[in-house]
């Protein structure tokens, strides 16, 4: 599921609701906050859920600046310092990156982690643009929560 514009009530995981509230707070009257507005010390419990990606406007490439521990655990690899463009099976994800760059507004996405070895996981992604000049997106800040899909439990009779 992809949705934009979003409201707080659209965001299920508490960590991502809190990140969205914080993003709006530091945004103030601007359309997008800047990287210097973001202070990790303001949201220490959210850091494991955050991924920061630099947007290279001229090349159209996306450099992973920081990967939170929750994403490292879910993916089984730390992509810090790597270009997202160079990671196999990420073309669908790159389309979402480009959408944020073009639209300069947050969105949410819920789906299956189909581009990972752990495709049995589902995830909730909150994409938040950051901009130094309030005109172009310089960094995409992702809030990510991973979970096992809900499934119907079978009760076994105990004799």
UniProtKB/TrEMBL annotation:
Source organism superkingdom: Bacteria
Listed name of the protein: PAS domain-containing protein
UniProt organism field: Emcibacter nanhaiensis
């Amino acid at each position: 599921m992809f949705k934009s514009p979003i409201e707080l009530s659209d965001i299920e995981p508490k960590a991502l609701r809190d990140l969205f509230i914080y993003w709006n707070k530091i945004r103030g009257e601007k359309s997008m906050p800047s990287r210097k507005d973001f202070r990790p010390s303001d949201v220490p419990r959210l850091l494991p859920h955050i991924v920061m990606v630099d947007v290279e406007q001229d090349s159209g490439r996306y450099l992973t600046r920081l990967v939170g521990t929750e994403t490292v655990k879910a993916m089984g690899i730390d992509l810090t310092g790597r270009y997202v463009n160079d990671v196999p099976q990420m073309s669908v994800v790159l389309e979402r990156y480009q959408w944020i760059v073009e639209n300069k507004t947050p969105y949410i996405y819920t789906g299956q982690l189909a581009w990972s070895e752990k495709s049995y996981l589902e995830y909730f992604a909150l994409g938040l643009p950051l901009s130094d000049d309030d005109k172009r997106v310089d960094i995409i800040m992702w809030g990510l929560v991973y979970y096992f899909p809900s499934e119907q439990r079978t009760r076994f009779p105990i004799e």
